[in-house]
Design a protein that fits this description.
about 160 residues, mainly alpha, Ferritin
Amino acid sequence: MKNFFALILSIIICELAGAIGTIFTVSAIPSWYSTLIKPALNPPAWVFGPVWTTLYALMGIAAFLVWKKGWESKDVKIALGIFATQLVLNAAWSVLFFDGHSAFWALMDISALWLAIALTMLRFERISKPAAYLLVPYLFWVTFATYLNFSIVILN
């Protein structure tokens, strides 16, 4: 039962990062974001919510699998520290892009985010291969999001 609550808490923490992003996103979509020129592969707005909700859940499960290996382990602490860093960078992107109206600084952030996810995966793999594999869709999506962000910088 203890593990079940830890798993739920881990998922909630990750979903909260998404909720923070949503706070800054919702009001900017109809006003600022809708005025931007977007690349040809830009998905419809309704796609982002379900994709991010799923990715945050996978991130939470991955973090739980690593945490479960023992908080007293130095490797676990380092891995979860890098994970926390990428979670902060993830939330910061929405603030920079949607609230700050700065596609350029958001691009700088998402580039650092991509690197932090890759480092997280490498650290997670040492502790729990399934945890690392759960982050693969996240890395793919952030790679695509980086393309979108870069394209918006170029087009606007």
